[in-house]
Amino acid sequence: MDYRENVPLYKIVLAGDVGVGKTSIFQRYDKDRFIEHDDSTFGMDKLTKLLTVDGKQCKINVWDTAGMERTRSLTSNYYRNAHAVIFVYAIDDSYSLAVLHNWVQDVDKDAKMALKFLVGNKVDLADESSEVDKKQAELFCKNSGLHSQYHVSAKTGAGVKEMFYDIAKLMVHNTKAAHLNKDVFAIAENEDSKTTKSSNCC
Ligand SMILES: Nc1nc2c(ncn2[C@@H]2O[C@H](COP(=O)(O)OP(=O)(O)O)[C@@H](O)[C@H]2O)c(=O)[nH]1
Ligand SMILES: [Mg+2]
Questions:
Q1: How far apart are the CA of 55 and the centre of ligand 1, in A?
Q2: Which UniProt keywords apply (predicted)?
Q3: Rg (CA), the chain
Q4: For the chain, how long is the longest CA-to-CA vector?
């Protein structure tokens, strides 16, 4: 489908420390699979999905860091024109939540218009090794101006699809998001030939 058709496209980027599960969330959403791996440079790139939200079609363009956060080489281009940023921490690692304030600062600089979300990944480990309690996460959301929070497991798939759908729904109803669209269309057209792309309708 051509991006110039009248289907809004929303850029959603994943942010957060190495090892929290960004690539795994991306893959779970992309291909509904989980690949156990130890190599944190293992990374994906971008995907596009077509969704129908409240009877309206939209596309979401999800970006993964592809391991660039390891060398702190994430450029402002990564965040530029993002409609939404999902800050990921792992529920078994309280440090991964603590460091997110650095990421929020970058986003506030490079993607001022973006809506910000928090997601606690690895909820499948909640019984054995949960380190972050609900209150801590809530406080972080409040102090950092985040819109809302989710809990998911890339391993089991719990909550992943629902999170992206919910964010897409917020984008569809967010009038500010419409202003960014022209630029994101251009990015998507440029990237189209070299990205991981799938178009699944939910
Ligand atoms: N138990 C569990 N492990 C996960 C989950 N998501 C990712 N992992 C593991 O966490 C490690 C880091 O995942 P990765 O997706 O590479 O994180 P990234 O560096 O943020 O992209 C890998 O060993 C994954 O197998 C999850 O939901 N549950
Ligand atoms: Mg990764």
A1: 34
A2: GTP-binding, Nucleotide-binding
A3: 16
A4: 49
Tokens of 83: 């409609």
CA distance 81 to 67: 21
State the Cα angle at 118 between 115 and 122, rounded to 5°: 145
Calculate mean pLDDT across residues 151-164.
Answer: 98
Closest CA to 152 of 89, 60, 77, 195: 89
- What are the phi and psi torsion angles at 53 (to 5°)? -120, 120
Task: Tell which one of 14, 17, 24 to mutate to probe ligand 1, the residue whose CB is within 8 A of the most ligand atoms.
Answer: 24
| pLDDT at residue 192 is higher than 50 | no
List the one residue out of 85, 81, 50 whose CA is nearest residue 64. Answer: 85
The token pair at 73 is 């080489």
Q: Is the pLDDT of residue 21 over 80?
A: yes
Percent share of the chain, pLDDT over 70: 80
Give the pLDDT mean for 100-108.
92
